[in-house]
Amino acid sequence: MNIKIKRIYDEPTKDDGKRVLVDRLWPRGISKDRAKLDLWAKDIAPSHKLRKWFNHDPDKWIEFEEKYFSQLDSKTESLIPIFELIKNYNVTFIFSSKEIKLNNAVALKQYFEQKA
Questions:
Q1: Would you say 9 and 30 are in contact if contact means Cβ atoms under 8 Å apart?
Q2: Angstrom distance (rounded) from CA 2 to CA 7
Q3: How many CA atoms lie within 13 A of 107 on its CB side?
Q4: In angstroms, what is the C-alpha Rg of the chain?
Q5: What is the sign, positive or negative, of the torsion defined by CA atoms of 55, 42, 70, 84?
Q6: CB 74 within 8 A of CB 100
Q7: One digit per residue, pLDDT tens: the chain, 116 residues?
Q8: What does pTM read for this prediction?
Q9: Secondary element (H or E) of residue 7
């Protein structure tokens, strides 16, 4: 299993494999053509309430992950396509946040690595 993460504003490359946007909202200033996505998995993004509460606060990171993982555990149907991609391809989770260390793509990568 090879999962990477990458900002949507970075150029797509061949070694990205399958590109999966993991944000609930479409990123500003990016056309669908430029995004070069294979899947937009908005259903597995953190809830609006959780995202607003977290607000990229490092002190809330561990609690954010716990709450987010709990949300993911309740969305098993939405996770199936991601598990299938991970099983068969290199996958890059695409996100738009300026915060590159503490964001939902980082948490999601950890979640799938634990579950696979």
A1: yes
A2: 17
A3: 26
A4: 13
A5: negative
A6: no
A7: 799 999 999 999 999 999 999 999 999 999 999 999 999 999 999 999 999 999 999 999 999 999 999 999 999 999 999 999 999 999 999 999 999 999 999 999 999 999 87
A8: 0.94
A9: strand 3-7
